[in-house]
Amino acid sequence: MKKETRVTHHPKVKLPKGNESLVDPVYRSVKFTYPDLDSAATAEARIDGFEYSRDSNPTTRQLELLASELQGRDDAICVSTGMGAIWLSVLANLRAGDRIVFFIESYKPARSMIRDRLPNFGINFSMLSVHDLEAMKKVFSQDDTKLLLLESPTNPMVQVPDLGAIVELAKKTDVTTILDNTFGGLHNHGKYEIDFFVHSLTKYASGHGDVMGGIVIGDQNKIKKIKPWAVSMGSTLDPGVAYLILRGLRTYYLRYQRHSETALAVAKFLQGHGCVKRVCYPGLKEDPGHELAAQQMDAFGAVLSFDLKGDAQIAQRFIDGLKLFSTASSIGSTESLVAPVKLYFASDLSDKELSEVGITHSTIRLSVGLEDPGDLIGDIKGAFSQAFD
Fold first, then answer.
1. Is 73 tagged catalytic?
2. Which of 65, 160, 332, 348 meets the CB 3.0–4.6 Å disulfide criterion with 289?
3. 36 is catalytic
4. 27, 73, 99, 180: which is the annotated catalytic residue?
5. Is 203 a catalytic site residue?
6. CA-CA distance, 67 to 88, in Å (whole number)?
7. Segment 243-277, tens digit of pLDDT
């Protein structure tokens, strides 16, 4: 073989029998083949085989199988971002004339998707409060209501919906349910009869803030129905990214527990501070959502929000005074993050809607990282001194 040919057709390295790598390989190939057409046509090849990475890839498939098992389901579809997962799960379950129900407490990009984009497809919507079960019961009974999108806990105010009651209402009226479970995590909420779970794998699953990904998780028959949408949309997760997320998941439970313990310590400190008006964190026994969260979740996550006793300028001075908290809108990373809630997550809401959600000019969201809790509390103390001097 000439060297010009060899650089395209590389030597194959096969491990001896019983000789295995402890870390699975990354399948970077876009294309896969079989030794002959008969092999490619077998039932096993059609069902479990690989042909083109837009459709499926061994590395992304490994991530799908692991994430779905953690969530208590048996199948999943990886996509390139968390919003890609939301778009896929929503569009694949609606058609023109249908109605989607969502909540004012929702993640802003999802809220904007429904209010600003879906009407272009002839899809109607109803925006309710995540706590208004009577309003849900009424709108679920409408013939055109087909889909519910919700979060638990909600972003950014970490409200805790009654998942049992909401899912029961949806099931009675054959409304398909989609739970954005990013804040809850892959190990939470699987016991509820949710049809589809979506996650931003960018957050807790990856855990290091260096890759983006999303996933839709459900029972195999449900995932099979929406799979053609994923292939057609081309929202493919790169296998190298899938590998990094798989690597991050090795420490998922350790990280989530540490996030939760530190967030609770920070929340307790804030709760007793004279500069703070209110703290929203379901891990606090005094939080309105604590009892529900304790029933529904294992640990309470990294995110908390609070109101300062002051205006937007005070809030800005506080944020600018932080040294260990970086100003950014993500969550679940090793580093701690801070964000002004109204500016980052609620600029589309009217004054009336802001009041309904409980967001003020001084509302701040923290995503607690893996730093020492004492160092983070010390950083917050310093920022208080700078903001209120």
1. no
2. 160
3. no
4. 180
5. yes
6. 17
7. 999 999 999 999 999 999 999 999 999 998 999 99
